[in-house]
Specification:
alpha/beta, elongated, two-stranded antiparallel sheet, single chain, eight-stranded mixed sheet
Length: 306
């Protein structure tokens, strides 16, 4: 699906702080001759912008091969940066696809509290509904009453039903009931919220494992996706979260939120380099339409300011 020009403008605006952080490190090099000292400063700027050592090294290598000892301006440097970022991200840019048969496609959503998990679920629901899929939500974070109420509100906004249970109830039991309801209704996509407390990893691991077992008994391929929601404002800590949730939840893909509220958007590149997990979508605002499928080229050019 081709994204509208308005989204591309919003993406550039949302990544403006991250782009400015990167540009502050690169801008001093405009119109200079590219020597070893300049290349070292470029690498430092890229690492300082959270892009990771791998991308920083490849950008420097590309510039050394193509432009060494020649004059280069800001636009030339940004174009090289954008090209390497796109090359790093293109293999992992994979929108969530509804392929399960029989239905529903079950998407288990995990992430720490405060990452934007609940609102991301609603935005994904809205996105699927735009594509003419029927959607149901399950309020599986039974530990927090506020999470259930928030999901109900977002569900109403998105125009999709929400299956919920009592506070402190069994999350796996709720997942079972939600799957049965979605199956009977012929729903295309079931998105299940989960608890996000990491204070006791063992408890969370047990709960998520139980949810997965219950779903797997109902459909041998469920859950079809286990999506980790990351808050871009946490910067390098996002990498730690990926490692933890990959180990305890079997994460199959990522969504990054709040890119408009940080200068640390480059960490998405480092995440791709480090873990190679699919990046399904990104968010640059609070509105229902402020999340879109991830496009490597659009992101790379917006981040690099190219």
């Amino acid at each position: 699906m081709t994204e509208p020009a308005g989204w591309l403008s919003k993406l550039r605006s949302g990544l403006a702080r991250s782009s400015a952080k990167l540009g502050a490190g690169l801008g001093v090099l405009a119109t200079t001759r590219l020597d070893d000292a300049a290349l070292e400063r470029i690498e430092e700027a890229l690492i300082g912008a959270d892009l990771g050592v791998g991308v920083a090294t490849r950008v420097a290598d590309r510039l050394r091969a193509d432009k060494f000892d020649k004059a280069i301006d800001d636009a030339g440097i940004r174009a090289a940066v954008a090209a390497e970022i796109e090359a790093a991200l293109a293999p992992v840019a994979k929108p969530l696809a509804v392929t399960a048969f029989p239905r529903p496609q079950v998407i288990l959503v995990v992430g720490v509290n405060g990452s934007g998990k609940t609102t991301t679920i609603a935005k994904l629901a809205h996105r699927f509904a735009e594509q003419d899929y029927t959607v149901m939500l399950a309020a599986g974070d039974t530990f927090r009453a506020a999470a259930t109420e928030q999901l109900k509100i977002w569900g109403e906004r998105a125009g999709v039903p929400v299956i919920a249970g009592p506070e402190g109830g069994d999350a796996a039991g709720l997942a079972f009931n939600a799957f049965e309801a979605a199956r009977k209704a012929g729903t295309d996509v079931l998105i299940i919220d989960t608890a996000g407390r990491l204070q006791n990893k063992a408890d969370l691991m047990d709960e998520l494992a139980k949810i997965r077992r219950v779903l797997n008994k109902q459909s041998v391929t469920a859950p079809h996706d286990t999506v980790l929601v990351l808050d871009a404002t946490t910067g390098q800590n996002a990498l730690n979260q990926i490692e933890v949730f990959r180990d305890i939840a079997g994460v199959t893909g990522l969504v990054m939120t709040k890119l408009d509220g940080t200068a640390r958007g480059g960490v998405l590149v480092a995440a791709a380099e480090t873990f190679g997990l699919p990046i399904h979508a990104i968010g640059v605002g609070e509105g229902m339409a402020d999340m879109r499928s991830f496009d490597a080229g659009d992101f790379a050019r917006a981040l690099a300011g190219a």
